[in-house]
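Hello,

Our lab assistant flagged a job as stuck in the queue for most of the afternoon. It eventually completed. Since we weren't sure the result was trustworthy after the delay, we are filing this so someone can double-check. Below is the sequence as submitted and the structure that was eventually returned. Let us know if re-running is recommended.
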Amino acid sequence: MPLSFLIFGRVVQNLAGQTANYYTTVSSNVQYLAIIAACTAIFTFLASFMSELSAKRQATRIRKLYFAASLRQDEAWFQTARVGSLISKITDNVDRIESGIGEKLTSFITQLSTFLCGIIVSFTLGWELALIGFTGVPLMAGAFASVGILTAKFSAKEQVSYSEAASVSGEVLQNIKTVKAFGGEQDSCNRYSAHLKKAERIFILKETILGITYGIISFTLYTCIALIFWVGVGFIIQGTKLPPGRTTVYTAAQVSSIILIVLVGAINLGFALPSMRSFFEAKASAFEVFKTIDRIPPIDKNAAGKIVENFRGKIQFRNVTFHYPTRPEYNVFENFSLTIDPGETVAFVGPSGSGKSTAIQLILRFYDPQQGDILIDDVNIKELDLMWLRNKMGLVNQEPTLLSGSIADNIRLGRSDATDEEISKVSRMANIHNYIVQLPDRYHTVIGEGGGNLSGGQKQRVAIARALIRDPKILLLDEATSALDTQSEKIVQSAINRAIEGRTVLMIAHRLTTVRDANRIVVMNAGQLVEHGNHDQLFQAHGFYWSMLNKGVSFQFL
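-- returned structure --
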C-alpha cells in the first residue's frame, strides 16, 4: 500500500505540473497500480486462507489433546475440576486461541507490515517529515505493551468467572428435576448471575483501560499527521531545500505521499495494536488449556506396567490407610487388611460412610492409599499396567450410567471390538435380550442420553451386560439392586447370580437377600473390619452384623 501512495503522489505532481504528456504518465502509473492491486489480492487470499486453515487445524488438534488429557487425569483431579469449567475451556478458550493464531495474527502481520513499509518509503521520500510523523510511535508502542500485560491478567480472571458460571449452569441443567422439586430455580439464577456480574466488572475495568489507551494512541497519531501537513506546506511555500546538500525542494507529490503513507500507516498501526489484545487473551487461554494438557497425573493410565500371566483375580488389602484428597482430616480406612481369594464372592456391609464403596475405588485404582498396599494376584497394584488391570474388571454401579447412542454402543463401551454375537450372549446372561429383540431396531435402538427411554431395571441389566462383555475376572457390584423395586430386583438379581459364576466378586449391598448367599460377608464400621464370615456364622455370633439386622425390619436401612 505505501508503494501505491508513492505512485499516487507522482500522479498528483503530474496533474499539478500540467505537463504535455501527463495523460501518458498517468496511464502508466495507473497500470502500476493495477499490478500492485492484483498482487495484493493474490497474496491477501493466500495469507488469509493458509492462516485460517492452519489455525483451524491447530485448534482441532488442541481440542483433541485437551479432551484426551482430561480423560487421562486421575479421580482426585476431577473432584476439584468442575465439568462446566472443563467444557468452557474446550470451547471458549480454544476459540480464543484459534482467533489469536488465525484471523487476528494475519491481520496483525499485514497491518504491521504496511506500517513498517510506510516508514521505509516515507523516510526515502523525505526523512524530515517522516521523522515528524513517526515521532510518537515509541510512546504508543510502549503504552500498548504495558496495557497488554494488564489485559492478559484481566482476561484470565474474566475467563475463570465465565467458567464458574458455565459450571453452575451445567450442574443445574443436569439436575433440573431436583432443582425444580425443591424450588431452587431462583437461587440457581442468583448463583449464575453472581458469576456473570463478577466477569462483567472485570470486563468493564479492562475495557476502560483499553479505551483510554486507544484514545491516547489516536490523539498522538493524528497530532503527528497534522504536524506533517503544517511543516510540509511550509517547506513547499518557502521553497526550503532540505536536507543539506540537496538541490531540490519538497514537492507536492512528496508531501502528499508522506501524509498519505503516515496516515495509512497510523491507521494500520491503530488496527494492529488492538489485535495484540487477542494475542494476550489467547495466551491466557492457552495457559489454562496447556496446564491440563501438560499435566501428568500421579495415577497415569498411559504409564507402562506389569501384566500378570494366568490372571486369577486374588485381591489383598494390606495395612491400608486412606483419605480422600478433599478431606485429608478424615481417614476412610485405618490400617485395613483383607484377602479375597480367586473366585470368592465377598459382600461388604456396614453403615453409610464406613468405607464400602471406597474399597471398589481403590481396587480400580481411582486413588492410591496414603499408607499400605493393595495387591492383585500378589503384585502391588501400582506396578500393574493400569489399562490392562481395568480391562480385567467389570463394574456395575447403583445408578447405571448409559451414554447417548444405541444399546449395542453402550454394551460395546465395555469392549470396543465386541461382535454382535458376543453382545447377544452377554445380554442373555443379563436377562435383557428378550426385551431388546422386541424393540423396532433391536440392539440398534437409540436410548437417549442417560438411557432415558429405559426403566431402572432395564438400564441396570444393560450395565451388567456391559460389565460382562469383557469377561472380567473380577466383578465389582456397588449396590447394584438397591435403587430397584421388588420385581426389578428379582430380575436383576437373577442376572447377577449368573454373572458371578467363576469370578471374584466384591459386592456392596443394603439388602439381606443380596448378601446372604455370599461366600463371605465383611462387616465394616468407620473404616475398620469389624467381623467377617458367612451369614449364618455372623448371625449366630450376635455381633455387629446381628445388631444391624435387628435395628429394623429391612436390612436395606443399613
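-- support follow-up --
The delay was a queue issue, not a problem with the job. The result is valid. Strands lie at 315-322, 333-340, 345-349, 371-376, 379-380, 393-396, 474-478, 504-508, 520-525, 528-533. The chain has 20 helices and ten strands.
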